[in-house]
Here is the input.
Amino acid sequence: MTGWLDGLRELRRYPSAILGMAIIALLVGLSIYTVVAIPYSQALELWRGGEHWRMTPANAGPVWADRLLGGRQPMTISVSSAGADIEERAFEGGRRLRIPLTFEYEHEGFPSEINLFLRAEGHEQTPFARLVWETPDGREISLGGHRIGRRERISISQNRALERRLGGMVPHVGLLAEPDTQQAPRVQPGRYTLTLDAVVFDEKADLETNLVLYGRVHGIAGTDHQRRDLQVALMWGTPVALAFGLLAAVGTTVTTLIIAALGVWYRGWIDATIQRLTEVNMILPLLPVLVMVGTLYSTSIWLMLGVVVLLGIFSAGIKMYRAMLLPIREAPYIEAAQAYGASNLRIVMRYMIPRILPVLIPTFVTLIPTFVFLEASLAVLGLGDPVLPTWGKVLNDAQAQSALYNGYYYWVLEPAALLMLTGLGFATLGFALDRVFNPRLRSL
Amino acid sequence: MSRETATRSPAGRGLMRDLRRLSIYTVKRLLALFVTVLVGVYLTIVIANMGGQVDELRMVQIRSEAAESVRANPDFQGMSSEERNQLIQRRVALEVERLRLDEPFILRSVDYLQQAISLNLGRAEQMHSDRGSRQVYDIIVERLPATLLLFGTANLLVFFVSVFSALSLSRRYGSLLDRCVIALAPSSAAPGWFYGIFLILLFAFVMPVLPASGMVAAPPPEGIWAYAASVLRHMLLPLTAMFVSQLFVSIYSWRTFFLIHSSEDYVEMARAKGLPSNLIERRYILRPTLAPIITSFLLMLVGLWSGAIILEQVFNWPGLGSLLFQAIGHRDTPVIIGSVVIFAYLLAMTVFLLDILYALLDPRIRIEGGER
Here is the structure.
């Protein structure tokens, strides 16, 4: 055991090892925070998408990237009727409401979309509303009239008639642009008002509205094509990747080591069988088999993990461990153990395996990122876990939506940076460990 | 005269003995490898058919397709539902017979195995080659050159560049360049496709100088030279991606390897004798380490066959890897099995070559007849 401690102490002399450990600590900390902050079930629920994300823009970049590059793209502006001063006039059999939704718009870029959400609960007869858009310079643009169901969503951006009236500009550009410019449209800064002129056929029932001008930037990670905040996937990808990498690495190295040791100790047909199995396994290509299992059975990450471990048991590593264990088998201390009557299993587990563990640690550490990338590879091929958000699935979505072609670079770069960080962290530590624990390197 | 024959005959006997042992060894290895391929391919057949479960999926598909085609055809509109059902039944039966789904799976799997091993790969169920052939063999052979071209070039490049630069680095152990390469070694934690994404981003979108994917421009240019130039342009990005992802770790491991072997006593001895350094390199370092070098070269070739799927997907390269992926998507079992059979054969051939080369290079095997 002292050898280990000495080795660890020696590790402090390597700056790369310190860097690697710092990165790993960071990732582990992020995973723990994620698991505590967003529980598993909530993460799955969020990643399923849908109603959760109706207030977030689609394909918005991260805020910090835009600000760093000197941009002033808008974030999402949401104006609710709760704070507005509503004029109310009653008449026979109903009321007439005038709801002004006012906001200041000072950004450089146009919003990516404009939606109006309406909620009219408990009305016997559907209310009716007329919408008027007022610009800072006093122009009034009618957005037409709408019947209001219990929960209504008016997509102002999709209003084709309005688009024609605005001279061919999509509404979320045209409504906020300077009038009568011949060149590219520019934002007219100032105070905008959307007035709802609603007729309600009920004495008490409420009418809530919410105007949303979706931004072009959102949060620290941006959003994807389904409006989902990438932060969820990037954060949850960390524990998933670490768990997958660690479990796969432990599963393959430990079983492989034990099997190799058993083969060396018992020799004869056991060793021969293990050798032949290893050769069969070397002929089976890992990735095609994984792809096959993924397409034909299920793409659950745990099934994949099982297959990886199963195929990894009889990997080429067995040959390497065998070569290392063969001289140990003949060592005098093993003979001594046999002489005082240690059982076969005891000799294998307590005498042979511990001897080569130090040599194994570096391999083990460098194996982890390999499996992390394997999971990402499968996800990029479209065989990611169906429900769990992972880095690879974000990459796959980005690939499927041609993110690079459309210029959504953040969508590719963020998961890639995290993957790279994980890879670098474990690899730098592994290489440093190799220099400390590998006896052949130490003698140089 | 008599002295001459006396000295020659032990050498001649030695050669005969070597040859005999070598041939026994070869036959043994061939047999072992054949059994290995047999088991591997059978396992693939079982997995690719989900142990027979794919048949049920296919039955459902056949039934719905037959029903759909009969219903959609206006000629059969006038039929009564009784007649129409019979027609559907007849079509399903025909299709079942064509795909031999009426036989038990175990029987078919053995049959598949025999055909696969004799490279009689059969006809694809859904896919066809670009020339329109339905033969699995044609489909695979059409894709093979693309994979060979890209991955062969990349691996050869990585191998030779890393071995030679490692050799020169091991001479300059501890220099700035040496330490830089060591510091860069962890970059290989990421696979080639990962760098591929960045390269596509940089050189195809931010600075559009190279094509993002594919193998030749569309339409393919006329003339051999123009065609080759186009392929080369398309190859540059995937090639760089693989090169970057493998180079540094490869140099690192070769450098360590050469360092260990150049500190052996016999090398020190040769240095002390004052032999020129290139002679020391050739005869005292490279010759004794030739066996492991060749091993790793061939093992790299093994990796070449299997690691290609994702890189080919990312770069849309029309090779074996993307073929296998498409085949799995179509559930086209003959193509899947065919590709894996080809993979297995190529791997087995590589391993066999390795064994023979080992035997030639390593005198211990030659003399002991492979009783390692």
Notes: The two ends of chain B are 40 Å apart (CA to CA). Residues 193 and 310 of chain B are 6 Å apart (CA to CA). Residues 18-117 of chain B form one domain.
